[in-house]
Amino acid sequence: MSELRVRLSRLPGERVAVSPDDGSAPFELALADLPAHVAEVEGGPVRARWVWDDTARWYPPLLDAGVRVERCQDLRLCRRLLRRAPAVDQALLAGDDAERWDRLGPAAASEPTLFVTDDRAEHLAADVEDDRQQRAVATSSEAGRLALLLAAESSGALVAAELRWAGMPWRTDVHERMLAERLGPRPPRGARPARLTALADEVGTLLGAPGLNPDSRPELMAALRRRGLDVPDVRTWTLRQLDHPVVEPLVAYKQLSHLFATNGWEWLDTWVRDGRFRAGYQPAGSSTGRWSSDGGGALSLPALVRPAAVADDGWRLVVADVAQLEPRVLAGMSGDLALAGAARGGDLYQAMADAGAVGSRSDAKLGLLGAMYGATSGESGRLVAGLTRRYPRAFGLVEEAARAGERAQPVRTLLGRGSPPIGEESGELWAGDLDAPPADDVSLARQDRLRRAYGRFTRNFVVQGTGAEWALCWIADLRNRLWSLPAAPGAPLTDRPHLVAFLHDEVVVHTPEPLAGDVEREARAAAAGAGRLLFGDAPLDFPLSVSVVTSYAEASK
DNA sequence: TAACCATGCGCC
DNA sequence: AGGGCGCATGGTTA
Closest Cα to residue A301, out of A158, A183, A163, A467? Predict the structure, then answer.
């Protein structure tokens, strides 16, 4: 079945321009009629790809109207990606409104709707930009891979909108009981809970500093010094090295204080409504292509609050995560058959140890992570050296990426996402020409530090970024597989198995209990499919560990 | 006073 | 002298 690209542009006066790419005449719609139009096309014989400036603006109102979209192209995300793709001729992305497209930021999470008056993207012609992007992809040296990447990125945007729309089932009562057990009753706004007050008092007494505020680093540091406890910082790890009665209450204070501040009652008030935790997701919010969160912290839910994520009555949570995603991706993209061999089973690190490459599983993990993060010293650095001889292609690939970075050259992922240029992230600007000799020893040292830091970044970028691509392909496929599971005719998204969380290498699906087995099967099938999409027939496994649970906290990791 | 930075902790 | 994030606080600066 051929694909019809339906380009949607926002017009003034609550109207939408609809421009199909099949040569048929463009036409206009009232914004209010859009859901009915989309529903009709989605239900018809034509396979449509909805092309719009930003999924976070267009899709939520469609979901509200009960319309589920199968595929789209998110022009904002795709343009950002193409802008940095080394294989793309940047001149092809120039033209009408190009600068405005470049400046387009993500839609605000607080107003994810087209119906809000907002001239931000008005007059931006989706058909013009779509033509540019399509041409840029088609003429690039990596057209197939880039097309896959853009499709995956756009599917991710659909997932993100659906995650937020559906929300993670959340039991406020369970969460509040946990908070009360650890912190005491909910305090008035701005006040410390009883347990924190007690711990702060205890710390102050033990340090002979009544009224001490443990949240103030200078105060705390000074008080510790006065008792002869000379510490460079007040990290938990540093404090634990001390032998002093204040350590235990102080560490307890820090942990509980963090819980209170980050996932306490205020968090519940802000992010949980009607039994659902609705966070903000930013697809490709990280430069490597990983998602980030822009509210609610959905990608860093602490273990302590996970017991509150509880499936509805008669439903289950299917939690699936990939074991050692990035080492497996590294094996695939480098074509390292020895490492791929270790990646054939469920425990890659153990397989490396069994093959005699290292003495133990923990050594394998430390060495491999060290290679991907750029460890140069200590135990990890020593292991890297040994493993390089055993897995020359895999370790050579990350080493080469690091050297490119140290030469200030950007790198790219398997599907063609390019790294940001050197200096952009750190905010430090290169003084003048990179090739020019540095003015003095200080600037030489600074440039050197920056180059090495960029090398560690590019080293990790190729692996983390390709891992993110695998994960995008995984959830894009899983999303469609879930939709194909049996459901009542016309059942909305949340009456069927649906994704409620995605955390880099892990998904959570909320599903009617009888379908949990089907969901598990589809998750595994989608993982295998993602492996084939990225690495073809390379002998490589992406095994999932899957738990069917009532509460997220019960999932075994 | 707002905006920003540094620190520390949580997640992957 | 190990990568990517978000979020909170205190403390500083404009």
Answer: A163
As ranges, strand C nucleotides with an atom below 7 A of a protein CB are 1-11
Residue A100 has pLDDT above 50, yes or no: yes
H helices then E strands: how many in chain A?
20, 14
Average model confidence (pLDDT) across chain A: 92
CA-to-C1' span, A294 to C6 (A): 7
Residue at shortest CA–C1' distance from C6: A297
Does at least one atom of strand C sit less than 7 Å from the CB of A14? no
From residues 65-104 of A, list those within 7 angstroms of strand C by Cβ.
none
Residue A557 CA, chain-centre distance (Å), reads 18
Nucleotide C3 C1' to residue A369 CA (A): 9
**pTM for this entry:** 0.95
What pLDDT sits at residue A432?
42
Per the structure block, which two tokens stand in for A169? 């089932």
Over residues A351-364, the mean pLDDT reads: 93
Nucleotide nearest to A457 in CA–C1' terms: C3
Which nucleotides on strand B sit less than 7 A from a protein beta carbon?
7-12
Contacts 24+ apart (CB under 8 A), A179-187: A179/A259, A179/A260, A179/A264, A179/A265, A182/A256, A182/A259, A183/A256, A183/A259, A183/A260, A183/A264, A186/A265
Owner of token pair 């014989």: A45
Distance A15 CA to C3 C1' (A): 45
**CB within 8 A of A153, min separation 6: which ones?**
A74, A77, A78, A81, A283, A284, A289, A472
Percentages of chain A per state (helix, strand, coil), in multiples of 5: 50, 10, 35
Chain segment A284-320, per-residue pLDDT in tens: 999 999 999 988 999 999 999 999 999 999 999 999 9
Q: Give the distance, in angstroms, between residue A363 CA and nucleotide B6 C1'.
A: 34
Quote the pLDDT of residue A438: 64
Q: CB-based contacts with strand B under 7 Å?
A: A 217, 233-237, 254-255, 258, 262, 297, 299-303, 321, 503-506, 557
- Residue A211 pLDDT class (50, 70, 90 cuts): very high
Q: How far is CA A131 from CA A92, A178, A220, A243, in A?
A: 10, 53, 60, 67
Are the beta carbons of A96 and A133 closer than 8 angstroms?
no
